[in-house]
Amino acid sequence: MYLIGLTGGIASGKSTIARRLVEHGAVHIDADQLARKVVEPGTEGLAQIREAFGDAVLAPDGSLDRKALSELVFSDAAALDRLNGIVHPLVRELSGRLFAAADAARPNAVVVYDVPLLVEAELDHPFDLVVVAHATKKTRAERLVDIRGFSEEHAQARIDAQASDTQRLSIADVVIDTDGTLGHTVSQTDALWARIREELAARG
């Protein structure tokens, strides 16, 4: 298995890169989806969140009220740390099982693990490459406003709540510049795929 850690700030174009790699044959695993899965009704994760934050973060049907939880932790660093301390280990364990399954199904599989919070979660998976999708804060804020309908204030707050560009770039093996056109992002991703195939071929 060839394991890629793909990260980048909100609205940085990670999904475009992941989609292109999947078109080439990669297996895509999305950390955000796993984070939702580990707090579904009946899970240990949801029970721990309820114990930590109370019934106020539950919807009437007993599922997690994400809006209530995000409002609770967004401006409270200690609460956010407590939430991450519950969710991150569960996601790490589940992702490890999915990697093992992908490897068993196809030993030469290229697995793209899409992790927005790779820096913040301090992941220690044995990545062959860490790929950072990079666009300026200005570009990402504009995308959040124009495409996702955020207010300018909300867009800026979401960007500022994540790791800095400097922190992300410091762990990058490959940086894909997503500030320009879609074609520019895709061509860089194609070059990345060619590099991966060469490295796999060299492994024999």
From TrEMBL:
InterPro entries: Depp_CoAkinase, P-loop_NTPase
Name the record gives this protein: Dephospho-CoA kinase
Record key words, sorted: ATP-binding, Coenzyme A biosynthesis, Cytoplasm, Kinase, Nucleotide-binding, Transferase
GO biological process, one term: coenzyme A biosynthetic process
Function: Catalyzes the phosphorylation of the 3'-hydroxyl group of dephosphocoenzyme A to form coenzyme A.
Binding-site list for ATP: 11-16
HAMAP family (alphabetical): Dephospho_CoA_kinase
GO CC annotations on file: cytoplasm
Location(s), subcellular: Cytoplasm
E.C. number(s) listed in UniProt: 2.7.1.24
Name of the top EC class for this enzyme: transferase
PANTHER family: BIFUNCTIONAL COENZYME A SYNTHASE-RELATED (PTHR10695:SF46), DEPHOSPHO-COA KINASE-RELATED (PTHR10695)
Catalytic reactions on record: 3'-dephospho-CoA + ATP = ADP + CoA + H(+)
Keyword Lyase applies: no
Pfam (any one): CoaE
Similarity comment: family membership: Belongs to the CoaE family.
Domain of life: Bacteria
Pathway annotation from the record: Cofactor biosynthesis; coenzyme A biosynthesis; CoA from (R)-pantothenate: step 5/5
GO MF assignments: ATP binding; dephospho-CoA kinase activity
Database matches in SUPFAM superfamilies: P-loop containing nucleoside triphosphate hydrolases
